[in-house]
Amino acid sequence: MAWKGTSPLLLLVWFAASMCGARDRTDLLNVCMDAKHHKTKPGPEDKLHDQCTPWRENACCSVSTSQELHKDNSLLYNFNWDHCGKMEPACKRHFIQDTCLYECSPNLGPWIQQVNQSWRKERILNVPLCKEDCQSWWEDCRTSYTCKTNWQKGWNWTSGSNKCPAKDVCRTFESYFPTPAALCEGLWSHSYKVSQYSRGSGRCIQMWFDPAQGNPNKEVARLYALAMNSRAVPHGVGPLLLSLALILQVWLLG
Ligand SMILES: *[C@@H]1O[C@H](CO)[C@@H](O)[C@H](O)[C@H]1NC(C)=O
Ligand SMILES: *[C@@H]1O[C@H](CO)[C@@H](O)[C@H](O)[C@H]1NC(C)=O
């Protein structure tokens, strides 16, 4: 049942917000974006490959997408991680995990935006990535090499896969991305925004999680959808209700 595990207080606010005439934002929950390889609807995928297995219970990616994205120069995007020599495996696993989240997660609805791109109709913008997930990505990649800060544009594609344009020299990640935020936010044109919240807080999206405890991002999407929902309530009643619920929760627990 969809409501299982939801705090009664959040439920109460949700209900109150609905009573106040807010639009039901269930269209933000359990959805797949309209992009190059996503399924139209999320569903179980028992055989998801390797690092994408956390999404087996409910995924927007197919088995073949999950297999392909683990390959160098995968056919999904012909994107070459090793454009400045070999990317360290410790670094590459973060890029694979990032791609698993992008292709497989059914919990990115609150951050989906329409775009006019030839290869996709929708993208994600400012997904609040848990700060530790960004930090470890940056730390594990410091010593690998790249030639650009935004990997979504400006490559030389004449050979079929991305090559560094002549003017952009290969240097360490650290010199192109001086901070974790420079990496996680800059890399894919602000698909991510580094959250001030930590893994396990229920307030940021985790790239890495243990599926034995369920998918923590489901609750995060619900919380943000609710916040967007309450913003739609007239006369600022929604934010008031949400704040009230959070205060109550702190008060009751503390
Ligand atoms: C996409 O392009 C169409 C027509 O060219 C335009 O009407 C629409 O506003 C554009 N959408 C975005 C998100 O830029
Ligand atoms: C792009 O790469 C090709 C070889 O693959 C090269 O001939 C060409 O000069 C490059 N263009 C730029 C702008 O770097």
UniProtKB/TrEMBL annotation:
Pfam families linked to this entry: Folate_rec
Domain of life: Eukaryota
Keyword Disulfide bond: yes
InterPro entries (UniProt xref): Folate_rcpt (IPR004269), Folate_rcpt-like (IPR018143)
Leader peptide range in chain numbering: 1-22
Family of this protein: Belongs to the folate receptor family.
Protein name: Folate receptor-like domain-containing protein
Organismal lineage: Eukaryota, Metazoa, Chordata, Craniata, Vertebrata
